[in-house]
Specification:
CATH architecture of the largest domain: 3-Layer(aba) Sandwich
Distance between the termini: 64 Å
Strand content: 15-25%
CATH superfamily of the largest domain: Vaccinia Virus protein VP39
Number of strands: 11
Largest sheet: 7 strands, mixed
Number of helices: 11
Helix content: 25-40%
Oligomer: single chain
């Protein structure tokens, strides 16, 4: 890096450097990291485009760029990921919520009454369940997450974004729940990537995100199978089931839902046109 840098020059250099490291969105990532280092918005960067950066400011941004160059996800570097318009805390060891999962929230919110009880399994950072609670201020939402670290993060997000209306339990799916109750909806973004697909995933995912939140045995079906089979014992008649899946699993998951007593089963595509969510109603 040169002796004197403006915002413009640093963003240009960082974009090219990150691109050479194989980063998919080098300009956006450079802007996010510099804005974070300067404690300002991305818009402010362009207002101050020709402003010289101090030695202290350069010292703050350099380690952030280095981490991104090593393909660490931006969300871990910043400690936050936006989901459904809200900031969710994330940290290493906690699955980073994806934009396609926002559709699962929308489907659930449209399917239930405002005062419903909702169960979110494989909750990770709490993005799905906490967002449902924030969107439905009268709803009561329970979250279950197997990782104690992720469960702790989900509690932080719940207190920040839907205080007093979300309970978080650490444990294995339905067994983690303290009492038998009936929910109007059960939603889940479980691990569903088949192990054979590991090689096609980006280094940001394989080298940094928790594998137990990504990969599942039985070709990606292991956790989904347990959720679908057990959901009927926890749903009210006519209750909503929504599960995010890998597109390759559509026939198997549709069959699992039918055998578990769900009707009106349909597959919902994400914004990329991929089969991403299976939804159904308990008969």
């Amino acid at each position: 890096m040169a002796e004197s840098w403006t915002v413009r020059a640093l963003l240009t250099w960082a974009r090219d450097w990150l691109a050479n490291k194989g980063v998919e969105s080098p300009r956006l990532d450079a802007e996010l990291l510099l804005a974070h280092a300067l404690s300002c918005s991305r818009t402010k960067l362009y207002v101050d485009f020709d402003k010289p950066l101090s030695t202290a400011e350069l010292a703050r941004v350099k380690p952030l760029l280095k981490r991104r160059g090593q393909r660490e996800p931006v969300a871990y570097i910043l400690g936050v990921r936006e989901f459904y318009g809200r900031p969710f805390r994330v940290r290493p060891g906690v699955f980073i919520p994806r934009p396609e999962t926002e559709l699962l929230v929308q489907l659930a919110v449209e399917a239930v009454r405002p005062e419903s009880r909702v169960l979110d399994l494989c909750a990770g950072s709490g993005a799905v369940g906490v967002t449902i609670a924030a969107e439905l201020p009268e709803a009561r939402v329970d979250l279950v997450e197997t990782s104690p670290e992720a469960a702790a993060t989900a509690r932080e997000n719940a207190e920040a974004l839907a205080p007093g209306r979300v309970r978080v339990f650490a444990g294995d799916l339905f067994a983690a729940l303290p009492e038998q109750v009936r929910y109007e909806a059960v939603v889940a973004n479980p691990p569903y990537v088949p192990e054979k697909d590991r090689a096609r995933l980006a280094p940001e995912i394989v080298a940094h995100e928790p594998h137990q939140a990504l990969f599942a045995e039985e070709g990606g079906l292991a956790v989904i199978r347990r959720i679908v089979a057990g959901a009927g014992d926890w749903l009210v008649p006519g209750g909503f089931l929504g599960v995010e899946i890998d597109p390759s699993l559509v026939p198997q998951v549709r069959d699992l839902c039918a055998r578990a007593g769900f009707t009106n089963v349909r597959i919902v595509k994400d914004l990329a046109g991929l089969d991403r969510h299976v939804v159904g109603t308990l008969s």
